# Entry
Amino acid sequence: MRRLGHEPVTYDEEAGAAADLSEFDAAVIEPGDERGLRLARALRATNVPVLFTSIYPAENDVLALEPVAYLVKPFPLYALERALASALAPVQQPVAAAICQSS
# Structure
């Protein structure tokens, strides 16, 4: 993460209960245990983008959390870099257009 210019933090579930999860820019989570899934659900509830990395293929309950990416290990560093860039990119709002007709 540091090689990509990001400062990683470790989430402590016990201490983090009072933390404001919306302060996170994005999260890279191993979905293999229930703690990771609980954190991912809490982050998604605050609209924080989540990326999953695992040695196992994605399961439906994990994909239902709408991760920005699901990377299967081992993966190249550029895949993580692209996924993080996508997660941190501003959300594109649809452009509304109006057509005015002159009489």
Summary: Strands lie at 27-29, 50-54, 69-72. The chain has a mean pLDDT of 82. The domain at 2-88 is CATH 3.40.50.2300 (Rossmann fold).
